[in-house]
Amino acid sequence: MNESSSRVAVVTGGAMGIGAAIAARLAQDGWRVVVADRNVDGTAPPGGRYVVCDVGDEASVAALARSLDTGEQRLDALICNAGFMIRKPIADLALAEWSSVLTTNLTSTFLLVRATEALLRAANGAVVTIASSRARMSEPNTESYSASKGGLVALTHALAVSLGPEVRVNCISPGWIATKGPQPAAEEHAFHPAGRVGRSEDIAALAAFLVGPASGFITGAEFVVDGGVTRKMIYPE
Ligand SMILES: NC(=O)c1ccc[n+]([C@@H]2O[C@H](COP(=O)([O-])OP(=O)(O)OC[C@H]3O[C@@H](n4cnc5c(N)ncnc54)[C@H](O)[C@@H]3O)[C@@H](O)[C@H]2O)c1
Question: What is the mean pLDDT of residues 34-42?
């Protein structure tokens, strides 16, 4: 491991949204951040590096890992954040669409951890996966997304057991985090026991804690960050 450089983090899907906030937060905390995203127009925070990478593609992930082996020569944190949703009635959902969601949201973490295991072990590093409260609750027509996120929660504890004690692996399951699109209405904020919809920075703060030394006894855990919505009992009026 290259001891002279600052701690190195890879943040997937860091070109925008929650991933960009995690990348910015880690950079602020002194990390060198490698952003890996399939968007060709993205940027990394100051001091970092941007890599165009499709995290569901084995060759693309292998190229990312090679660039870490020859470049930074260390990896202290891997944030598996890239993900997307297809909303479609199951009757209309093509197998290719189902598979694309599973590949990006779930298989990618297998590919990324397998490709970087040696660097992570050498650094006594940490992995954070970004699942969703939809691992446990659903709206109609979201089967592939919910299945992928449920799988990611399970993959997280499996990895924690296999990679410990050198590497800790934890999961954040966000609820509604306002990133793009119209801002939530007042009643949508009020619906949350916390009094508001989430912000990307809420997730970034927890991710920063989970890759830092203060969380050394935490591994294989899932943290639901949803303003209390999954704890709120709802009956018809
Ligand atoms: N925003 C929310 O309310 C919310 C809630 C629960 C979970 N999540 C999860 O948080 C993560 C980030 O969500 P977001 O709202 O910031 O999404 P977003 O759409 O704003 O950003 C996702 C980023 O991931 C990248 N990406 C997508 N597929 C990729 C691939 N195959 N390879 C590399 N990069 C890829 C995109 O280019 C984009 O930059 C996702 O995993 C999402 O499922 C989001």
Answer: 97
